[in-house]
Amino acid sequence: MKTLHIEAKLYAKSGSWLLVAAFTLVSCGSAPSIQGTAITSSPSVTSKADSALPNSPSTPANSTPTNSVSVEVRTGIERSEEELWSLLQQADQRSFVMLIRHATAPGTGDPPNFRLGDCSTQRNLSEEGRQQSIRIGEAFRSRNVSVTKVLSSQWCRCLETAELMNLGKVEPFPPLNSFFGDRSTADEQTAQVQKFMLENQAVPGVVVMISHQVNITDLSDIFPQSGEAVLVEVKDNNKIDILGRIPIS
Prior knowledge:
Strand content: 15-25%
Number of domains: 1
Largest sheet: 8 strands, mixed
Low-confidence stretches: 1-68
């Protein structure tokens, strides 16, 4: 609980972290690892996003927005882990996104000398994290869940998680990059991810996104553990439904 409190404080937006922390604890009702739990609020937010695409890693996450999209983020009833997997097996007719926090990488944040593209300057997966990543991929294959696209933060621990899952070609997607140390781009990156989800709503299947705790919490109001997934269904009329969490590792 102490670790959760500290990370929640660091994650929170300036001037509102107490409200966010309290909301998370009350909504979850227990430790964040409860299966099938969904946050009970359903805020309606207006987001701005640019045209960042998975194949353009050089696109800055904080570039000037070119348009805006109104997104309604909704939550559903609590579902068990098996119920969520069952939904994923219906992906030939529906559009899902699996937001997965990278596997276990000891520590918090990144070293002061952090450089993108230089894994020696970053916090990386432990051997436990590598094995965890392999098990995540096996969980998909054992249930015959077909993945149409794998997008990842450019951080080494996310890229390695995605590669070891072995679910398809891994595409770096800058909007999934961590904003743990600098929240100035948080709203813009969240909006870019939402925009990508909505633009691909008409394509059935499962898109896997490997990212960081802060990014996933901003998108879903859920605080995932390392290697844990949050299942999202993208629907028409700009609706994004948060269906629950899966401790798939």
